[in-house]
Each structure stands twice: as C-alpha cells, then as structure tokens.
Design goal:
Layout lengths: L1 H16 L5 E2 L7 E8 L2 E8 L24 H199 L3 E2 L2 H6 L6 E5 L8 E6 L7 E2 L2 E2 L11 H6 L1 E2 L5 E2 L2 H10 L2 E8 L5 E11 L8 E9 L4
Parallel strand pairs: 4-5
Antiparallel strand pairs: 1-2, 2-3, 5-6, 6-7, 8-10, 9-10, 11-12, 12-13
C-alpha cells in the first residue's frame, strides 16, 4: 500500500520542481539523508533524519501464505519491512512539508518576480512612452512646419493662378481684338480681291484691244516704213540743194531781224530821247510801250548797258538777259566773259552775270524762258521769283513757284 503512494509523491515532487535531487551520506556527518533540489538558479538542500532500527514483530501474520520452499528468516524480513514502512512514512511527511515550503517560497518568489517584471515593464513602458511623446512632439513640429510650407506654397499657387487668370483674360481680350481685326482685314482682302479681279478683267479686255491696236500699228508702221524709204530716196535726191537753201534762209532771217531791231530802235529813240531807266519795267512804268533797245543804269556799275526790252509779251516790261536769234554770236565763252557780258543788244548777246546779280538784288524779278524753233513753234516757262547770287557763290541762281510751263524735258 505504501509503495505506490511513495512512488506517486516522488514523481509529483520531481515534476513540480523540475530540478534534480541527490542523496548522500558523509562519513562524519550525522545520520540522515541529504536531498538537494535545484529550481532555476536556486538550489535547495534538505536533511532528512534516518529512522531508527525498528523492532521486529514477533507476531506472525496469520494470513501469510505457505510456500513449499524452505522458509527464510521470518522475523528479520518482517522487521525490515516495518522499518522500511516507517522510513517511507517519515519520508512522505518530510516530502509533504518540503512541498508546502517549496510552494510557499515559489509563490513569494513568483510574486516578487512578477512585481519586478511589472516594474521593469512599467519603466520600459514609461521610457517607450517618453520616447513616443518626444517623437510625437518632433513629428508634430515637423508637421506644423510642413503645414506652414504647404500653406505658403498654396498661397503662392493661388497668387500665381490669379496672375495667370488675369493674363489669360488680357490675352483673351487681345485675341478678340485681333480676331476682329483679322475679320476686318479678311473683308478688306475680299474687297481687294474683287477689285483685283475686276482690274484683271479690265486689263484683259485692254490687252485684247491693245493687241488689236498693235496689229493695226504694225500695219501702219509697215506702211510708214515704206513711205519713209520713199522719202529717204527723195531726201537723198534733194540733199544737194538743201544746204544752199538753208544758208540763204539764215542770211534772210539775219537781215530781217537786224532791220526789225533798227526800226524798233529808231522808234524807241525818237520817243524816249535817250532816257536812262533802271530796267525795262521802269521804262514801261515811264510810258514806253514799244519793244526795242533801251539804255539802263544798274546800281554799283560805272557803265550803262544797252538791253532789249520786250514790251509786248505778258504785259511787257521784260528785260532780256539773253537773246539768241540766228546763231551769229558764239556763246562758247570763258568765265570772265560770262561775268562781264558779251554780244550786241541789237542782235545776240548775254547781259552778264554781274549785271544780272545786281539787277535781281535791287528788287524782286520774275523769269520767263522762251524757245522758238526754225518752224516758228514756241514754248516757254514762267517763274514768279528769280534771283542770281554773287560771284563768291559762283552766281548760283534760284527760282520759285513755276506758275506756267509749256516746256518739256
């Protein structure tokens, strides 16, 4: 009965302690059993007292079985058995006490370990919480900075968007204006294209008419070429007699002009009795109305000048500064001759640059230029104001206001 109980108790102790035990007895140690139990880092040593020698029960078990073998010493075996039971009971009690003691110690140690673990965990949690709070504060500060940056960037973007919208509105207005201008230009282009098409049609019609006229002109030119050839033949035959006739014509013209000048000079001399005037306009104002040779006095000049006065053209009073009639006088002269003048007032002459300069310096003068060919065709040009500069300025002439003109280049 005790054998199974002992085995179970020993097994429970070994499992619950999860350690090791040993039993020894020294030579000089007191009598007893030493039990060492290790739990974690702790080692527990227990001394169990050794039971005394049990007395043998002299009574014999009446229920003992009889065996055929020769019986052993019954008293000694019974004593040993009882002694063993007593030792086992004592050991069991000690083990129970040991179990209670170990459980109490384990509970206290476990509570201490739990408290220390809780304290360690609490410190760790506090450190972690402090670290998390610092990280949270740092993250909050960073988030605040980022938020401020985002707000600044957002405000900048909003300002940029406003500026872009304003510029877009301006561009839209400009685009509208340009579109209107382009439409106007397109309308003008359409009108111009119509005009150009009309002009092209007119030009085509004119070209066709000009082509027809060209054909007619070519026919006329061909006819005139034939006529010119015939005339050239006639001119070749008459060229021998033409030179003599021209010479006779020149001589007759010279004689006629000379006689006219003499007659006009005689009439003027009979009326004016050699009166001296400032210019022909002064003679006209004095009552002279016949064209001819008059004597004028130009200020700052020592000698009087004989000039031809035209009293008939455009109201009269014209002082002739250059007269060419028949080519009898050579006008290929030098600077001094053109300065002082040359020729005869009754025929061909040049009054002189210095005399013209002094005349135009006295008062305003007009200029009339007349040209006449051998056939009697005449052209002229009239300038309201005329002035000739001094010799220092190379007798440069100036004219203003061409009022009438029949001359062509």
């Amino acid at each position: 009965m005790w054998g199974p109980a002992l085995a179970l108790n020993l097994l429970w102790v070994s499992v619950s302690l999860t350690g090791s035990s040993s039993q020894w007895r020294g030579a000089n140690s007191p009598r007893g059993h030493y039990h060492r139990v290790q739990y974690g880092h702790c080692t527990y040593t227990f001394v169990l007292p050794e039971p005394g020698h049990c007395r043998a029960n002299k009574q014999q078990d009446t229920n003992a079985l009889q065996r055929d073998a020769p019986p052993s010493e019954p008293d000694t075996s019974l004593q040993k058995l009882r002694h063993l039971e007593t030792a086992t009971e004592n050991n069991t009690q000690w083990l129970l006490k040991l179990e209670g003691y170990i459980q109490d110690n384990i509970r206290s140690e476990m509570s201490q370990m739990q408290q220390s673990a809780v304290q360690n965990h609490t410190v760790t949690m506090l450190e972690i919480g402090t670290h998390l709070l610092s990280q949270t504060a740092e993250q909050t500060r960073k988030l605040t900075d980022v938020e401020a940056q985002v707000l600044n960037q957002t405000s900048r973007i909003e300002i940029q968007l406003l500026e872009n919208s304003l510029s877009t509105n301006k561009l839209e207005k400009q685009l509208m204006l340009q579109t209107n201008e382009i439409s106007k230009i397109q309308e003008r282009n359409c009108l111009l294209e119509r005009k150009v098409s009309d002009i092209e049609a007119k030009h085509r019609a004119e070209l066709s008419s000009m082509k027809k006229e060209k054909e007619l002109l070519q026919q006329l030119v061909g006819h005139q070429v034939n006529t010119i050839r015939e005339l050239e033949k006639r001119l070749l035959s008459a060229s021998s007699n033409n030179s003599g006739l021209q010479q006779q014509q020149l001589e007759l013209l010279q004689t006629v002009h000379h006689l006219i000048a003499l007659i006009s000079q005689g009439k003027a001399m009979g009326k004016k009795e050699d009166k001296i005037f400032r210019d022909c306009a002064d003679a006209l104002e004095s009552g002279a109305n016949v064209s001819g040779i008059y004597t004028i006095h130009i200020e700052n000049m020592t000698e009087h000048r004989k000039v031809y006065c035209d009293m008939e053209t455009s109201g009269g009073g014209w002082t002739v500064i250059q007269r060419r009639v028949n080519g009898s006088t050579d006008f290929q002269r030098n600077w001094r001759e053109y300065k002082m003048g040359f020729g005869d007032g009754a025929g061909e002459y040049w009054l002189g640059n210095e005399a013209i300069y002094l005349l135009t310096s006295q008062r305003l003068h007009s200029l009339r230029i007349e040209l006449r060919d051998w056939d009697g065709n005449q052209v002229y040009s009239f300038y309201e104001k005329f002035h000739l500069s001094s010799e220092k300025q190379n007798y440069r002439y100036s004219v203003w206001f061409c009022l009438k003109q029949s001359l062509r280049d």
